[in-house]
Amino acid sequence: MAAQSNLAAVLHGIGDLRIEEHPMPVPGPHEVVVEIRSVGICGSDVHYYEHGRIGDYVVNAPMVLGHESSGVVVDAGTSSLAVGQRVAIEPGVPCGHCEQCRRGTYNLCPDVVFFATPPVHGSLAHYVAVHEAFAHPVPDSMSDDAAALIEPLSVGLWANQKAGTGIGSRVLVTGAGPIGVLCALTARAAGAGWVGLADVHPARLKVASTFDIDDVIDAREGKDYADFEPDVLLECSGAAPVVTAGIKALKPLGTAVLVGMGASAEQSLPVATIQSRELTVTGTFRYAHTYPDAIALVASGRIDLDALVGATLPLSDSEAALKMGQTDPSVLKTVVRVQE
Amino acid sequence: MAAQSNLAAVLHGIGDLRIEEHPMPVPGPHEVVVEIRSVGICGSDVHYYEHGRIGDYVVNAPMVLGHESSGVVVDAGTSSLAVGQRVAIEPGVPCGHCEQCRRGTYNLCPDVVFFATPPVHGSLAHYVAVHEAFAHPVPDSMSDDAAALIEPLSVGLWANQKAGTGIGSRVLVTGAGPIGVLCALTARAAGAGWVGLADVHPARLKVASTFDIDDVIDAREGKDYADFEPDVLLECSGAAPVVTAGIKALKPLGTAVLVGMGASAEQSLPVATIQSRELTVTGTFRYAHTYPDAIALVASGRIDLDALVGATLPLSDSEAALKMGQTDPSVLKTVVRVQE
Amino acid sequence: MAAQSNLAAVLHGIGDLRIEEHPMPVPGPHEVVVEIRSVGICGSDVHYYEHGRIGDYVVNAPMVLGHESSGVVVDAGTSSLAVGQRVAIEPGVPCGHCEQCRRGTYNLCPDVVFFATPPVHGSLAHYVAVHEAFAHPVPDSMSDDAAALIEPLSVGLWANQKAGTGIGSRVLVTGAGPIGVLCALTARAAGAGWVGLADVHPARLKVASTFDIDDVIDAREGKDYADFEPDVLLECSGAAPVVTAGIKALKPLGTAVLVGMGASAEQSLPVATIQSRELTVTGTFRYAHTYPDAIALVASGRIDLDALVGATLPLSDSEAALKMGQTDPSVLKTVVRVQE
Amino acid sequence: MAAQSNLAAVLHGIGDLRIEEHPMPVPGPHEVVVEIRSVGICGSDVHYYEHGRIGDYVVNAPMVLGHESSGVVVDAGTSSLAVGQRVAIEPGVPCGHCEQCRRGTYNLCPDVVFFATPPVHGSLAHYVAVHEAFAHPVPDSMSDDAAALIEPLSVGLWANQKAGTGIGSRVLVTGAGPIGVLCALTARAAGAGWVGLADVHPARLKVASTFDIDDVIDAREGKDYADFEPDVLLECSGAAPVVTAGIKALKPLGTAVLVGMGASAEQSLPVATIQSRELTVTGTFRYAHTYPDAIALVASGRIDLDALVGATLPLSDSEAALKMGQTDPSVLKTVVRVQE
Questions:
Q1: Which of C168, C189, C292 lies at the smallest CB-CB distance from A191?
Q2: What pLDDT shows up at residue D3?
Q3: What is the per-residue burial (b if ≥16 Cβ within 10 Å, else e) of D38-61?
Q4: CA–CA distance, C106 with C111 (Å, rounded to integer)
Q5: Are the CB atoms for A340 and A315 separated by under 8 Å?
Q6: Is C26:C3 a contact under the CB 8 Å cutoff?
Q7: What ipTM was predicted for this assembly?
Q8: Which has the closest alpha carbon to A239: A213, A211, A268?
């Protein structure tokens, strides 16, 4: 590998993103070097850019953004991967030794190293090093953009697994951002009998209506979600009133999965309803073991990730990519084509 | 059956309990008549006596109290039960036809007929009629009192089943009333590796310490429940701060079961913790299919229900029985011996 | 309802099928009368026709065949169904009172009354009476034939539920008859990452290849199923060597569901493999609670049942319908259009 | 640590066990050195001694026997354990990197290194090195013998977890050797409503009757197990007729766990019964994550492992220990006190 330069999108402070040289990654044991192709912009990237922090995670030093990424192996190290292998990169590498890792629930590893979560650098760069087990091969039929979006798809897949979505499930998704749409598409791919996607933003509703979802619900119209008799709620808005309305709409023994993060650590929930209907409320934190399944879903045509991509920009326009949500709210997902 | 008289404890209004004649039950199809022996006093009986209502359930007409009951079959009707069979009476008979009944989750039947839930009369009477399938035979080795307390034991058993308590579980129970104690004893019987029972009332803590529970915790001492590393919370106090503290103490992937009813329909819950640890929060509404298992647990000596009985009174002293919690807080469970 | 005549296909003995008058059904409590439209021919119908028995079930008296049926409500009785409602008929009505019924596992009810299982008459007739809860409404967009085939789809759906098929599952189906094809299509609808369907009959393989299945496997070619790394086996052939080969192909912790009935009650299974890989082997007996979900799957376009119908015949040609498997093995499913 | 000598019981060939010097263990990374105290004799040790092999595992070179062991940490290496810590040793250390390890099902790791499984040396020695995560601390209240028997208890615990034994389960255990007894005791500790233990050997039946098991069944008397209405079978005999009889006795939806290894890789099973009752048949291979739970069960007094120990012998009498099953069949478990 003769590459000398490793341009990256580095956040230096609130609203201060610079495209600059970043040290070439030096692969450690079990690591490979990947030449990055596509990086999806996530709400967390935008949040760090706009606020310099997410909760307790504070950007105190320059940090490369980006964690939804795909690329090509250029240095296979001692791994079983081949140089030239196209991969989707799982952005969090757990310690492998703690109780959670030993039990297979590695998303809850307290020592996970996760791209673009301070102080760990992200993957919005020409090259990154990654543990071989987290560089997942993708077939040639899958685009670079789709391979990058295996990451948010994993969030949707995990939410549906937590919910137990299966054949005949009636799934209400609240919040029609990229995660909400992917939750809905995954529910459909899992055999849900009905999938509804609700939001209040006209632009989002319009985009949502282009997907194969049974009902796109304009939540401003005051429709009672209970009329749809959902038994699963995948809550992707994080808005407290939506959480409450969604839970109250569930059928007895239904399950609510809180995916979206709320503004405050505590929220009022309809406890009496949870008890009288024996509902289950849980939440998701990232995902575990989802990549191979998510790749299979996309490779077999069950979910079309390219349809989510509303804008593509070169690395040099990364700042514009971060602002795309404001510039054009009809863009569901922006992808940075790093090598363009 | 030559009985002519059916004395019962009838609530006529707040604080107005009368021991008076009640119509002899006429068994319908599939029903048997049971001569009641023991009736445990439940907090709901006390609440109706003191307040005339529980939430939307209002005592608008005279109502017989009591739903924790045992007795002897005196008219077997067309059932397969024998006259003379001692039985524990499951107090709620579902419709048998709705979706919940067909799926086996009959505790959620919207048309259930439940003893001493307005306008349905209870079983604090000399005789009641009950569906044969809900008159569960008990062995001669089991006392009448214990047979009556199969009802609250069912609540504890159901809570543990919802929680998935099993071998090695670390179970924190908050609230050391009868339900809390029974949740704790059931957890132990289910193989829990550690069981803790927390409360703030000295009398309750003293009673709790007489049972085989690993830690009886004085919650006034500010101990952090997290130090016990519970993976199950069985919340029996209904107090919002306790619910929050209990949930926050859970290990990742832990489960909280809300058993106790709170003062308000909505409560603030630590949503961010639920998400970051992928906790599960659920609640219980009565129980289903628990009676045979609960009877087996007691019959085989794994749980001693008689040890909960702190006072026994004749039917004529039913009012004193309802006031026992105030009179002597060291009495965990009061039983009315109906035929005495 | 002015109907006077109720023609039916009545089996009088081996190879002796007569289209003759059968008593008009008189609806009992909770029953409706359905004018039958489509009846799928099942292997069990053929087996009774050819052998006069299936195991312990012997046709000792004339019996109407057929149990995969759809129609229109013509007498709604006291039900909530409307006259004119098109319905898919669930052919087995359980007792509603036994332990299995109370627990919701009504397919295991020992007293179930099931169409065309001696001595119960089937539905290959102009009119049948059926319990309202087992006459499932279907939307107008669903054909009569598809509504009839909700029955075999239920078998496939139940098999997948037992198997826990979900997103990313790798499902091997052995035996490419109608049940095998429906198992495969349901697996795909449930999000399976890979679905393979194996058989040895060229005609069946050819038909199978017209469906959206990842791999149609010619089992005569000696391919090792383990190469596909299945974690689910849905065994629909009943052939002992296939059962063994299928189980041995499973990945550790995989699940085998035995759907097809074998020639003998006992079969040799690879027990050492079951132990060393901790495999799960189970079987299915009919299905429970599947109709609404199966209807939703078809109504929403996720599964196309009409594509299975290779031949349609009028009631008068019922005998030809029973012989279709021999006449033309490329016909996957034959449907009798009763009113034609 | 000043130890110079490491006496061990080394199997040189069939019937050729020698107490001789074995190299002192040199701890690798993450390993500690344990001074062994108690080692339980397992049937596999006896089998290697008598036959030189178990299936494909052949003793081709001298091998230290023993894998049920406890001891004291004498060299803590870089671990968090303290010198002097008493530990129960989990005898199989998985690779930590394969799919099974990553998913938490490490007992199925194909590269596990397991004591006294050729060519890996066992722990019937004065000193062994072991990975710190597999040296589980035990409280001072637990005897060395009990700590050693955490290993077979883990087998019983795992079997019950696979079976889903819980409150009210009716558990039939077939085969009253040490594993059968531990399966039964664990079932009881998990809240089983009934536990039966069946065997044909008078000595074993007599020993079994000393434990708190609901029914000890003399299988020679031709009793039909179905009379006990078991819903769980824990099969510990490996005898094909017993497997079949046990499965046929199960209630609908029951579960059979095959723990005992049979004489042949394939066995005839009652497939028609498995299907018509929708039974589940599975097997166990060792265990995973059981040690902490098993230690908690014993430490809290729920299971008394010392009661299983029928004979204790010094290391010098290891050969007599291996022959104890023949010498005195009333000895359920023999323990070698290594330092005596």
A1: C189
A2: 52
A3: bbbbbebbbbbbeebeeeebebee
A4: 10
A5: yes
A6: no
A7: 0.96
A8: A268
